[in-house]
Amino acid sequence: MGIAACLLIALYIREELSYDKSYPDAAHIYRVVGWSKDNGTFEKWISFPAPLAKVLLKDFPEVEKSGHLMPNPLFPRAGGNEVKPSNKNENTHEEGFTYADQGMLDILKTPFVYGDRAIALTEPNTMVISKSKADKYFPGQNPVGKLLYLNNDKDRPYKVTGVMQDPLANSHLQYDFLLTLAGIEWWKGEQNDWDANNYPTYVLLRQGTDVAKFEQKLTAGILHNYYLPTMLEDGDKNAEKELANSSLHLQAIGDINLKSYDIQDGLTHGDIRFIWLFGAIACFILIIACINFINLSTAKSANRAKEVGLRKVIGGYRSSLVKQFLTESMLFSFFSFSLGILLAWALLPYFNMLSAKSLTIPWAAWWLAPTMILSAIVVGVVAGLYPALYLSSFRPIEVLKGQLSRGSKSSVLRNGLVVFQFTTSIVLIISTVVIYNQMHFILNKKLGYNKDQVVLLHGANTLGDGVKGLKTALLKLPQVQNVSISDYLPIAKTKRNGNSFWLAGKQNTDEGVDTQVWIVDDDYIKTLGMRIVAGRDFNPAMPTDSQGVIINQALVRKLNLKKPVGKQVANGNTTFPVIGVVEDFNFESLRSEVGGLVMRLGHSPSIVSIKVNTANMQGTLASISNVWKTFSPGQPIRYSFLDENFANMYADVQRMASIFTTFAILAIIIACLGLFGLSAFMAEQRSKEIGIRKVLGASISSITALMSKDFVKLVVIAIVIASPIAWWAMTKWLEDFAYRAPIKAWVFILAGASAVMIALITVSFQSIKAALMNPVKSLKSE
After folding, report:
1. Where are the alpha helices (DSSP H) in 28-79?
2. Half-sphere exposure (CA, 13 Å, Cβ side) for 48?
3. According to a count of CB atoms within 10 Å of the terminal CB, is the N or C end of the chain lower?
4. What is the dihedral of CA 776, 777, 781, 782, to 10 degrees?
5. Backbone angles phi, psi at 743, to 5 degrees
6. How confident is the model at residue 402 (pLDDT cuts 50, 70, 90)?
7. What is the spatial distance between Cα 214 and Cα 224, in angstroms, rounded to a whole number?
8. Distance CA 707, CA 767 (A)
9. Which helix (H) or strand (E) holds 577?
């Protein structure tokens, strides 16, 4: 069981460590990351101005190639789209769109099935698609030169210029559609604008480049030659101070998956801390299994004492006895590895479901058999070395005189190993309870909005102005309470738009506050159940509200506004009157505190939020579907639920909790198996003592208590050791969350009581069995 658990964790770790290692020049590809120190902590970002990629290539000879992406769903066609080829009438929704320039194809050397990679993204209105999407939309054809329409936009078809191999599962770049950036300019002069940060930027460095020195050169060259003049030109008098706390760094592409947990990059990736955690659990499980072997081997030493004595009397050397016992240990290990591999193979489908992976055992890999054989030898030696040395040390004269009964004696080492086993188990129990407590806290925390019974209708942007008619028709349904049109929602993978805001008139003296600017309609706040704490909501009957904004309490605090309603806030040279203040609500993960937010009236039509007030959700969805069909007969309805989308934001933590719990239970079971075997041998060794006690009138309960108390003492010691370790580890883990459930005393009491109960149940079976035994059987040989 221990070996099977280790194999599964090893497969998981191997998969996570393999990310982005398959690119031909992976050792020299880096992502540019900005660092900014604020109140002693670093904020990190990966979005940079459009001209950065060109400047890197022009100003720095160390850079061989540079390129950038635009995956931000704030911009049209990035993220998800409704897709159809020119010869079809029905749309199909697809995710995995990003804008990219030719430099990205050059850096990654993306393998192509059709088309010329060297020029695939050099012309406007072109795209590269993956092999699977080519087979889906153009089965059995070469798609190069064919057209795809996005979101019913027939005025701007995209020509397919290349078909690339599907992105590998172990790549952080999971895009099936690369839209060209050639000819794109989101606003006049955008491609030369150093004010807007929207592009993740990658570089291929020349071989032999000293990365650390190049980072210093990069910071000085970019921040001072480009950012500083732009900020001073904008009138920012704090520019030099702000840049003094900032720097540019390069993140190796192979580190992006596991070492980006403190970078808000919008990607789904792993966490190197989980790798260390699961690696530690794997080691602990295997150590616990080895401890069982050591404890049981030494516990039954009295049974083998005569064998050792006789072998020594007839001329056996200690070295040959050590070899014999080590050979036995290795045979156990080889047999266990064989069973463990089969058990891991059988459990792999469950583990894949648990970890959201598609792991396989690489049976054909050349290294698998040698690794398993070497591991079996190492485990066999580690588990068998102490018992071999211990058993081979018996003196024949003492053994054959019957003076040796070491197995029945209390062993300091054996007791220490039991304490270690249960210390590990209790740490895992406490950690599991804390993790689940935090997950329950997150999923049930008051968020500042109502996520229940809100249906999200996707792809409404294909309706054009018809989306307003859709809203009117939906409001006529008796089950519908409110309807709002906005792509900006307090869940992941919806639109975001970050800007800096000031109190009007303070742009040149104060530091700007990083703020989200959301485009909403006049029913947004009502539909999501948010609360206005000052001022009022948007009123469609008041034309001036199109210029007004509603801000959240966090921005009020950051701008130090005493009476915010009626005040003016500024984004650059544009000012907006504040008409209302909304209660803070969590629009990002609960790992971070609520940031500043500005809501403006406008049109952002991809998602329609529908607040329903009925328990008959199936009937309500059918009614909504019928309305949708009247407006968009050529596009299947696509909907989700706000509460489910919210829960999906924490899917990684939930998966981690499930994996953690599974292996914690396994570690406890393995520890209990060892304790069960150890108590059986102890009962066997003390059988005559128990018989004498029964003859002298001892009760079954007193004998059971006598047999159990030594083990319970060891568990209590383990509780004392484990509690501070678990508290420290979980306190560090909870630091990732701005909002966290406190670690209360009941968690430690529950874990300790559970460990004692588990130990008592495990030991009591053997204790009661020994106490019920007929004393005649154990004493008749005396």
Report:
1. 52-59
2. 26
3. C
4. -40
5. -85, 110
6. low
7. 15
8. 6
9. strand 574-582
